[in-house]
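Let us work through a complete example step by step.
Step 1: write down the sequence.
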Amino acid sequence: MMDKEKFHIQEITPEETYLLRHQILRPHQSFAACQYDTDHDADTFHLGAFTKEKLIGTASFYHEPTLVIGGAHSYRLRAMAVLQEYRGRSAGRALILDGQKRIKNAGGDLLWCKGRTSVQPFYEKLGFSPYGDVFDYPPIGPHIILYKKLFKEEEACLNKMF
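Step 2: predict the structure and record it as tokens.
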């Protein structure tokens, strides 16, 4: 395993996410399938992970309730994508932690996603819990709902763990 690196995380435009979304998450679908109706909503934000000047990962966060879990001010993580050669080096972790901090600062109390089952262990290491049964998103594959209640104490513990 490669050494963990420091990545620069910053807010980016929705348009800056589309290439990685397409390349990593939906390579067999149209480029338009990587553009979501809520990408430009006022309470949506997009983060990019950079090494030097290169964008190597993206994550998008939408103020979207989940009817099954609760949370007064829920945010949904969508389209988390990190280039293959940078996985396992904490870029994804950095994106999630930065997003959590921004969500808490905005009064959010829950972060959730519909994650691919292949990355469920990654989310669980970051404190997410599964909810419900596995379901299929044709043609993408099996997914599961994962969620995390946001508390300041948890963030401090996670930062010490890595």
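Step 3: interpret the result. The first helix runs from residue 14 to 25.
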